[in-house]
Design goal:
311 residues; alpha/beta; seven-stranded mixed beta sheet; five-stranded parallel beta sheet; 29% helix; globular
Length: 311
């Protein structure tokens, strides 16, 4: 395939970037990162990118070094006379800070958008943003992909007559309802109340889950407190089994222990963020082909809408 694209990777998404490059049909570009004893680092592109479309794959999960490394790579490509720069961010960090939900707080997602634009990004490709409106924070094109493209075929392959979709909180109702409508099955909702972040005060379930195979749908799982509590509550209400799908497996703090000790049959996540440890209950489905197909469409100036199922 004739292409002016060159694909590079940050250190946070190296394995996924390798798979994207393989699926696209080009070798992964050569990049090195020099590290200083005080923690400072300097990425360096080790091949010419003059007049090329430079694709940089990097999820910006914590720590913030991953975001700054992406910004430095973008700046390096711009100063090396790249024709255009495409940031592929399977996981968009700081997306939970999409508005002022209380006085005197930052809108972190908007700040990240400003930083990427100032660094020289000409296009962003990301997946399952925590809030859809973040697309409007950018003055460059944003391709917002959906993990439902890979999750829905998997759910259809394990579908049972008693399957029901559920959401672990009311914020994910729109997404869960779309899954339920696509699969033509019922929906249940968990209602939770929090006093502080990552700490649930109480939770109730809305809907009938007795005798059902429940599938919890969410965009991300962080400490897994909400997810595992919702799974346990579903079983208390008579569910036959509970599994969960979540696009971004942040899985921080006690998440892995909570998942192992929960009533979840399995948790299905994408490889937008690499797992920090193995977990027998976690199944990873790759999104490499999804991103590679979108890059192929961009390379050929074709529509990308046929590449994913919108829910």
């Amino acid at each position: 395939m004739a292409t002016d694209m060159k694909i590079f990777s940050g250190t946070a998404s190296l394995e996924l970037a390798k798979q994207i490059a393989l699926s696209f049909g080009v070798p992964l570009g050569d990049i090195s990162v020099q590290k200083f004893s005080d923690g400072e680092f300097q990425p360096s592109i080790e091949e010419t990118v003059r007049g090329k479309i430079v694709v940089i794959v990097q999820s910006t999960a914590p720590p913030s070094d991953n975001l700054f490394e992406l910004l430095l790579m973008v700046d390096a490509a711009k100063r090396a006379s790249a024709k255009s720069i495409v940031a592929v961010m399977p996981y968009f960090g700081f997306a939970r800070q999409d508005r002022k939900d209380r006085p005197r707080v930052a809108i972190g997602a908007k700040l990240v958008a400003n930083l990427l634009t100032a660094a020289g990004v000409n296009r962003l490709i990301t997946m399952d943003l925590h809030a859809d409106q973040i697309q409007g924070f950018f003055e460059v094109p944003v391709d917002h992909l959906f993990a439902s493209t890979i999750f829905l075929p998997y759910l259809e392959s394990i579908r049972t007559p008693d399957m029901i979709i559920a959401t672990p909180d009311t914020g994910g109702t729109k997404r869960a309802n779309a899954y339920a409508k696509y699969l033509n099955i019922d929906l249940a909702i968990c209602y939770k109340q929090r006093k502080v972040a990552n700490q649930i005060e109480n939770m109730t379930v809305i809907g009938d889950v007795e005798g059902k195979d429940v599938v919890l749908v969410d965009d991300m799982v962080d400490t897994a407190g909400t997810l595992t509590k919702a799974a346990d509550m579903m079983m208390e209400h008579g569910a036959k089994s509970v599994r969960a799908i979540s696009t971004h497996g942040v899985l921080s703090g006690p998440a892995h222990e909570r998942i192992r000790n929960s009533q979840l049959t399995e948790l299905i996540v994408t490889d937008s963020i690499p797992l920090k440890e193995e977990n027998e209950k976690i199944k990873v489905i790759t999104v490499a082909d999804l991103f590679a197909n979108v890059l192929k469409s961009l390379n050929n100036n074709e529509s990308i809408s046929s590449n994913f199922i919108i829910v």
